[in-house]
C-alpha cells in the first residue's frame, strides 16, 4: 500500500476508537466521568450512593393503630383493672371476716368507705375521651347486677352477703348497697372528673357517712335529741372527715389538672356542703329514705347551687 493510500484508507489495526463505556457506568446516569490522559476517574463513587426507598402508604397504614382503637384499648384496660381491684377489695375483707380478723359490721363499713373512694381515685386512669365516663360507670354497673341477682336469690355469694349486709340477709343487698352503686354510676356519668359536684358527693357519702357509723357505734353514747339512733360523735366525725376527704379529693383532681379552683372561695363552700350533708344524715328519716340516697342527693343539690353561685 502506498503512502497515499494509507493516508486515505487507514487500516483498522491502527484506527484509534474511543474506549467503550463500561456497561456498569453506561446505565448509571448519576455517575459523572472525567478523562485525564485516558484515565477514567469517578467523581461520585457508586459505593457511597444510598438509594431512596419509598414505602407504600397502604403498607404502612396496616401497622398504624387508629385513634379510636387506641382509646378503646386504653379505657377497656382501665375498666378491667378497676373491676379487678373492686373484686379483690371485697374478697380481701370477706377473708378478714372469715378469719375473725374483723367483725362483720366493721368489714361492711370499711368496704363502704374504700370501694367508693378507690373508685373515685381511679377516674384519672381513664382517657380524656368524653366516652371514658361510660367505661368507668361499667364497674358499678357490674356490681349492681351482682347485687341484684344475689338479692333476688337467683344465686348465692356468701362472701358478698357477709361483706356488705348487716344481718346476713340477701334482701339487704337490694336496699343500701344497691343505692350505693347507683349513686356511683350517677356521679360518674353525669358529673365525671371535671366537676367538683360529683367528687364532693361521693366523698361525703363514702368518707363522711362511712366514718360516722364507725365512730358513732364506738363512741356514740350521747344521742342527738331529735334522733336517738344518731349520736353527736358520729355527726361530728362525719362533718370533719367528710370535709377533709372532700378537700383532699378536690386537691387530687386539681393537681392532675382536671379542675382548677380559687381555694379561698372553694373551702368555705365545701364546709357549707359538709354541714348540710351532716344535718341530713342526722335526721330521723332512715326508715323512709336510706342514707345512701338522702346524703348524696342532698350533697348534689347544695353543691350544685353553691358551686355555681
From TrEMBL:
Protein name (Swiss-Prot/TrEMBL): phytol kinase
Keywords: Chloroplast, Kinase, Membrane, Plastid, Transferase, Transit peptide, Transmembrane, Transmembrane helix
MF GO annotations: phytol kinase activity
UniProt-listed Enzyme Commission number(s): 2.7.1.182
Keyword Transmembrane helix assigned: yes
Domain of life: Eukaryota
Annotated compartments: Plastid, Chloroplast membrane
Pathway the protein contributes to: Cofactor biosynthesis; tocopherol biosynthesis
Record-level GO BP terms: vitamin E biosynthetic process
Reaction it catalyzes: phytol + CTP = phytyl phosphate + CDP + H(+)
Gene that this sequence comes from: LOC101506616
Organism, scientific name: Cicer arietinum
Keyword NAD: no
CC per GO annotation: chloroplast membrane
Transmembrane segments: 72-94, 106-126, 132-152, 173-191, 197-215, 236-254
Main location: plastid
Family of this protein: Belongs to the polyprenol kinase family.
Disordered: annotated segments: 1-23
Membrane topology: Multi-pass membrane protein
Amino acid at each position: 500500500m502506498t503512502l497515499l493510500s494509507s493516508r486515505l484508507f487507514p487500516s483498522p489495526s491502527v484506527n484509534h476508537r474511543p474506549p467503550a463505556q463500561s456497561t456498569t457506568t453506561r446505565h448509571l446516569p448519576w455517575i459523572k466521568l472525567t478523562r485525564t490522559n485516558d484515565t477514567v476517574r469517578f467523581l461520585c463513587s457508586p459505593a457511597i450512593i444510598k438509594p431512596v426507598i419509598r414505602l407504600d402508604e397502604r403498607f404502612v397504614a396496616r401497622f398504624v393503630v387508629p385513634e379510636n382503637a387506641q382509646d378503646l384499648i386504653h379505657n377497656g384496660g382501665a375498666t378491667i383493672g378497676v373491676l379487678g381491684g373492686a373484686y379483690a377489695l371485697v374478697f380481701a375483707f370477706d377473708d378478714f371476716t372469715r378469719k375473725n380478723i374483723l367483725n362483720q359490721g366493721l368489714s361492711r363499713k370499711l368496704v363502704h368507705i374504700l370501694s367508693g373512694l378507690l373508685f373515685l381515685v381511679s377516674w384519672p386512669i381513664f382517657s380524656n375521651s368524653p366516652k371514658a365516663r361510660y367505661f368507668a360507670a361499667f364497674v358499678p354497673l357490674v356490681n349492681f347486677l351482682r347485687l341484684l341477682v344475689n338479692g333476688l336469690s337467683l344465686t348465692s355469694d356468701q362472701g358478698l352477703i357477709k361483706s356488705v349486709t348487716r344481718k346476713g340477709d340477701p334482701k339487704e343487698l337490694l336496699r343500701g348497697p344497691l343505692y350505693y352503686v347507683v349513686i356511683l354510676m350517677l356521679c360518674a356519668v353525669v358529673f365525671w372528673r371535671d366537676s367538683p359536684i360529683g367528687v364532693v358527693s361521693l366523698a361525703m357519702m363514702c368518707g363522711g357517712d362511712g366514718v360516722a357509723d364507725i365512730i358513732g357505734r364506738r363512741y356514740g353514747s350521747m344521742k342527738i335529741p331529735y334522733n336517738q339512733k344518731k349520736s353527736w360523735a358520729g355527726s361530728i366525725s362525719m362533718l370533719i372527715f367528710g370535709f377533709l376527704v372532700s378537700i383532699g379529693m378536690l386537691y387530687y383532681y386539681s393537681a392532675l389538672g382536671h379542675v382548677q379552683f380559687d381555694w379561698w372561695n372553694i373551702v368555705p363552700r365545701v364546709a357549707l356542703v359538709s354541714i348540710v350533708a351532716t344535718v341530713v344524715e342526722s335526721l330521723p328519716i332512715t326508715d323512709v329514705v336510706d342514707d345512701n340516697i338522702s346524703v348524696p342527693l342532698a350533697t348534689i343539690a347544695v353543691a350544685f347551687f353553691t358551686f355555681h353561685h
